[in-house]
Amino acid sequence: MKKAFIFDLDGVIVDTAKYHFLAWQKLAHSLGISFSEEQNEQLKGVSRVQSLEKILEWGNKTISEERFSRLMSEKNEEYLSYIAKMDAGEILPDVPRILEHLILENQAIALGSASKNARAILEKVQLYDKFNTIVDGTNVSKAKPDPEVFLLGAKALGISPENCIVFEDSVAGIKAANIANMISIGIGNQEVLHEADYVFNDFTEIKEEFINQLVATKIV
Ligand code: G16
Ligand code: MG
C-alpha cells in the first residue's frame, strides 16, 4: 500500500526556530518589547503575520498597516541572512536515513510547512529533490491547526488523508493532522505533544520496522 509521509519543516527537518528567534528578538527590541525563548515557543508553526500580531499584543503596541508590513519584511530579511549560511550539516539527526528508507520503499513524500521560505531552506540543505510535493506558506490561506496544508499535500499526491502520516513538532500541527484524519507523529516532548498518535524525541528513535508497519497498515 502506498502511503504519503508529510514532513513539517521547522523543528522536524531543520532547527530554524533559533533563527526565527534571533530575527523576532531583534525586531521586538527595536520596538522596546522584551521577547523570551518561552514566547518564541508559542510562535512555532505559527505564520509570519500571526507571529508579529502576537509580539505586538505582548508589548501592548498598535501600529499602522504600513509599518506592520515594513516590519514583516525587515524580520524576513534578517531571517534570510541566517538561512543564507545554512548547509546540509543543519539537517536534524537521522532525517536523511528515514527519507532514504521511504524512497527505497517507494512511498510518497511531502513537505507541509507554514514557512514561505521552505523551498529556499530545502535547497540550502540539499533535500529539495527528496520531496514529491511541497506545500508551504505560499500555497495555503489558513494556518495550522487548520488542516489545509496537509490536505493539499495529500491531494497533490493523490493519496487519501487516512493513508497519510504527518511528522510535526508543534501542538498546532498535531491538531491539524488529527483534524485531517491523518496519523500524527510528534517529534519532541511527549507531554507537549500528547495529542499525537505517537511521539518520539527525534528521528534517531524511529526504526525502519516502525515505518514498515505504518506502510503495511490497511485502512478500510
Ligand atoms: C515555520 C515556523 C514558524 C514561522 C513560520 C512562517 O513553520 O515554525 O515559527 O513563523 O514557519 O515562516 P516564514 O516567516 O519563513 O514564512 P513550520 O510549519 O515549518 O514549522
Ligand atoms: Mg514545525
Q: Which descriptors would you attach to this protein?
A:
globular; metal-binding; binds magnesium ion; Beta-PGM; six-stranded parallel β-sheet; alpha/beta; Beta-phosphoglucomutase; DNA polymerase, domain 1; magnesium ion binding
Topology (elements, then pairings):
Blueprint: E1 4-7, H1 17-30, H2 37-41, H3 48-58, H4 65-83, H5 95-104, E2 108-112, H6 118-124, E3 133-135, H7 148-157, E4 164-168, H8 171-179, E5 183-187, E6 198-200, H9 208-216
Parallel strand pairs: 1-2, 1-4, 2-3, 4-5, 5-6
The site of 1,6-di-O-phosphono-alpha-D-glucopyranose has 20 residues, from helix 3.
Binding site for substrate: 8-10, 24, 43-48, 51, 75, 113-117, 144
Pfam families: Hydrolase
Cofactor: Mg(2+)
Helix content percent band: 40-55%
Write the H/E string, N to C: EHHHHHEHEHEHEEH
CATH topology of the largest domain: Rossmann fold
How many domains make up the 3D coordinates?
2
Outline of the structure:
With 220 residues, the chain is of the alpha/beta class.
How would you describe this structure to a colleague?
The chain folds into two domains: 4-15 and 88-216, 3-Layer(aba) Sandwich (Rossmann fold), CATH 3.40.50; 17-83, DNA polymerase, domain 1 (Orthogonal Bundle). The chain has a six-stranded parallel beta sheet with strand order 3-2-1-4-5-6, sandwiched between helices. Helix content is 43%, strand content 11%. It has helices at 17-30, 37-41, 48-58, 65-83, 95-104, 118-124, 148-157, 171-179, 208-216, and strands at 4-7, 108-112, 133-135, 164-168, 183-187, 198-200. The protein is globular, with a radius of gyration of 17 Å. Helix 1 (17-30) packs across helix 4 (65-83). The structure holds 1,6-di-O-phosphono-alpha-D-glucopyranose and magnesium ion. 1,6-di-O-phosphono-alpha-D-glucopyranose binds at residues 8-11, 20, 43-48, 51, 76, 113-117, 137, 170.
